[in-house]
Design goal:
single chain; 240 residues; alpha/beta; globular
Length: 240
């Protein structure tokens, strides 16, 4: 990953939070990066100045997903990996259309990675044994469910299952794994009461932080053996 000429790593949802942190991490190591973004933020200009290829994409429709795949192909004949970080978090509120909530969650968490993996798998192949990677970001609620975000949890569970299916399909050239985080970092708008309540949900009583995810991604990319696995990053929340 130190070679400037190595194929890029594609990160969906790279304008904010973990996607942005991963993009800057790879760029600091001279690893080429491509990111998708739905909404422009100043961080996109910073990424471009650092050398990243940034492509605006709307995953709200299959047409938008397929158009993005074509843009990726136009920029890169090969990919080192795909990190599916793009996500949304919609609750079943009293006034919400349940069909809309379910469709929106399936679109971003199932349709997008499913279609992109199929559309771009040949860019990951042909580089040697275990030289390509796909990483799905799921969620710790896959194991426990969620009474307030039922569609969200279900869509992430589908993505978790797809991890194993794509691992079977693409081995041994491409490894496919998932990361299932709980609380990674707070938002600036989170008040102290919320933060303390959230911290008390885990055994470790702290947030993971972006470096915890970066270190795990580095391990997965560096492995030549591990595939079809889900790595929990939840601070022991299921044991509380």
């Amino acid at each position: 990953m130190e070679n400037r000429q190595s194929p890029p790593i594609l990160i969906t949802g790279g304008a904010r939070r973990i996607g942005l942190a991963l993009a800057h991490h790879f760029l600091s190591r001279q690893q080429p990066v491509m990111v998708s973004y739905r909404t422009w933020y100043p961080s996109i200009d910073v990424l471009r100045e650092a050398g990243a290829v940034c492509i605006q994409a709307d995953f709200a429709s299959d047409e938008g997903i397929n158009a993005f795949a074509e843009s990726v192909r136009a920029h890169a004949p090969r990919l080192r990996g795909i990190i599916h970080n793009a996500s949304d978090w919609v609750a079943e509120t009293p006034n919400a259309s349940l069909s809309h909530v379910l469709n929106a969650m399936l679109q971003i968490h199932v349709h997008a990675p499913y279609l992109l993996n199929h559309a771009l798998d040949d860019l990951l192949r042909g580089q040697g044994h275990a030289q390509g990677d796909i990483i799905h970001f799921t969620d710790y609620v896959v194991e426990r469910g969620s009474d307030k975000h039922i569609a969200y949890a279900a869509s992430k569970a589908a993505l978790d299952n797809m991890t194993r299916s794509f691992a079977r399909k693409l081995a041994p050239e491409v490894k496919v794994n998932a990361i299932a985080p709980a609380l990674v970092m707070f938002n600036d708008s989170d008040d102290e009461e919320y933060r303390q309540k959230a911290l008390n949900k885990s055994l470790m009583k702290t947030v993971a932080g972006e470096n915890e995810i970066i270190n795990l991604v580095n391990y997965i990319l560096g492995s030549r053996y591990v595939t079809g696995r889900t790595f929990a990053v939840d601070g022991g929340r299921p044991l509380v």
